[in-house]
Each structure stands twice: as C-alpha cells, then as structure tokens.
C-alpha cells in the first residue's frame, strides 16, 4: 500500500520516518527502550501503514530493532562501535565535500549561504535542537549537491547516529563553549565549500570529525551507562 503525500511533498511514511528519527536523535525515545507499534503510532500521530514503512527504513539504518512479538527496540548506544563508524564517516564526508564543491548548483549555493548566515546568528545555549535542525539541513544540502544515492544511503543513518551522540554529550557534559565551537566549525566548513576551496573545506571537515572523536573519552568515563542503554541499572 502506498502512503499518501502531504501538502509539503512528504508522504506519510516519510513524515513518520522524520518524526521518529527526530525522537531518536533527541533521545525522547531512549537508547534500549522497547515499545509497541501502537506506542509509536501515538507518538507520531500517524497510522499503522506509514509507521511500518518508517520502521522498516529505520531498521535498515540500524537505528531500531524489530523484535518479533515484542514490538521494536531503540538501538542502544555502543561507543566502541560508533567510534569505529566515525572512521568510515570521516572518509565519506570528505568525498561528499569534494563532490558538493564540484557539483553544487546556484540554488544549492544560495541555500548554503543562507544556512551559514543562520548558523552565525544562532545563539548558543543548553538546548541544541535549533543547531541540530540546521546541521541536518546542511547534511541534506551537501548530499543533494553530491548527487550520489549510494553515499546518501550510507551517510543518512550515520548522521542520525552522531546527532544523537552529540545531543547526549551536550546535554550532560557539554557547555555553551562546546556548542559555539561546533557551530563555528560548521560555518568554517560551509564557507570553504561556498568559496570552492577544496583543501580548506577538507581541513574543516577533518577538524569537525576530530571534535566528534574527542567526545568519546568523557562519554565513556563520566556518563552513567544507563544513558547508553536504559536496561542497564544505575549503580
């Protein structure tokens, strides 16, 4: 069955995916949490068919697990695995940046200009949702400019994985300074892409990946394991 399309161009299945993905990235659906199909339908205010469509896609993305007869489980945070995945993401992001510099249309470049301006005007604070929304839009624009479906399918779940990790870090271990540093690195990367300065853009991309890698030690050392998986009982 094909799900209906909204006035904004997204099918109900795509809307369900976007809503559930946001709940996962901002840890409103907690790592390790198990829920029924009815629970998810209620959380996103959509019917069974679009939610099933979204679940299949999120399962392929390894963001949740379908458990026969027991609903679905939000994939716990595995710091060891995600540290390995960052190595993959680093290489692919650099490839995407090079493609985006070569391929970006005038329309995409105009949107990148606007996005850079919005990031500069963004106020740092304890709530990083506004930044996450701009970060997600930046990821989407660069993938659109790169115009390589295989890369998009690979990077999309990685973006959500690290958006969730960044949200966890900032919520419990970060500060306004770390948010501002993150914002500035994204601005530097965007500026270099807009200027078509490939060496500068790749350098900015590596600095951003380095910033993410630095989160792992404090997350492992200072954060209660129950934040990584709700099934782990606090000491």
UniProtKB/TrEMBL annotation:
Keyword Transcription regulation part of the UniProt annotation: yes
InterPro entries: GntR_C (IPR011711), TF_FadR/GntR_C (IPR008920), Tscrpt_reg_HTH_GntR (IPR000524), WH-like_DNA-bd_sf (IPR036388), WH_DNA-bd_sf (IPR036390)
Record's keyword terms, sorted: DNA-binding, Transcription, Transcription regulation
One Gene Ontology term of the molecular function aspect: DNA-binding transcription factor activity
Gene3D superfamilies noted in UniProt: GntR ligand-binding domain-like, Winged helix-like DNA-binding domain superfamily/Winged helix DNA-binding domain
Ranges where the HTH gntR-type domain occurs: 10-77
Name of the protein described by the UniProt record: GntR family transcriptional regulator
